[in-house]
Amino acid sequence: MNRSAPAIEARDVRVTAHGHTILDGVNLSLQRGETAVLLGPNGCGKTTLARVLMGYQPVRSGTLHVLDKTIGATNLHELRQHVRLVSSTTALGGQSGTLNGLETRMRPLAAVLTGIDGSLMLTRNLPSQDEDRAMHLLRVVGLGHRETSAIGTLSTGEQRRLLLARAMIRPPELLLLDEAAAGLDVAGREQMLLTLRLLMAAGDRPTVLMITHHVEEMPPDTDRVFLMNSGRILRSGTPAQVMTPELLTETFGCRVYVRKASGRYTLEVLPEAWLDLLPETDRIGL
């Protein structure tokens, strides 16, 4: 594996489903060791891109390399040993009624240990050092006190942090976070982001691609931002280059103002912006 090659290299990637174009010529390059954010509105193709990167969604045309392996011409099972995905839904490979495919009756320690080989159940005895690392990770993500609880009884925020620990039991080369903080309240979101920072400091730092439509979730140490809409990457660059009112207005389709404080960005929607979203016939008298 060529470690000087980008972690992700997409060239004119196109995906269609049911006669609709979902990804329309995506071009994206992410270098190893970078922390990046893919930012765009709902329905713009972000989750489809995550599915493509994991090999769950076929590509109609274009080329896609993940960790120097060509998607469509490589052993996906082997590749997934080096790529981990944490998602807010089970849509990327889990089963209905489970937590990303894990049995909800499992205990947290066992759930984390399944991440060693990407299985959904423990099928073999593991060395004590693996159990020690799993227990350490549970403490890092703030779940040491829930060691004896069934994972189905954990709160949504606790479950997301559990999945982060599972993803890091064997430090991946590439970590994909698809709307990983979706559905969490403010405290839960901040716990999730802090957990990510602690995990990055606790082991080998992977390349990270965070996929979200919330600017507030962008980590302070973000190296690169990709702005997406209508199945295309509109712009990419450092946060200072692309986190501007003009580019984010184009990305989200409504007029916004951008604020930055303590290394974190927030969006403020201008009071009149909602009028732009109404058809002309509905604006009469407003």
UniProtKB/TrEMBL annotation:
Q: Which domain of life is it from?
A: Bacteria
The UniProt entry's GO CC annotations, sorted and at most eight, read: plasma membrane
Q: Where does it localize?
A: Cell membrane
Q: Where is the ABC transporter domain?
A: 8-255
Per UniProt, the enzyme's principal EC class comes to hydrolase
Q: Does the keyword Glycosyltransferase apply?
A: no
Chain coiled-coil ranges: none
Transmembrane residues, as ranges?
none
Which keywords belong to this entry? ATP-binding, Cell membrane, Hydrolase, Membrane, Nucleotide-binding, Transport
Topology versus the membrane? Peripheral membrane protein
- Which GO molecular function annotations are given, in alphabetical order? ATP binding; ATP hydrolysis activity
Q: Which family does it belong to?
A: Belongs to the ABC transporter superfamily.
In its UniProt entry, what is this protein called?
Putative ABC transporter ATP-binding protein YlmA
Q: Which organism is it from?
A: Mucisphaera calidilacus
**What does the record give as the organism's lineage?**
Bacteria, Pseudomonadati, Planctomycetota, Phycisphaerae, Phycisphaerales
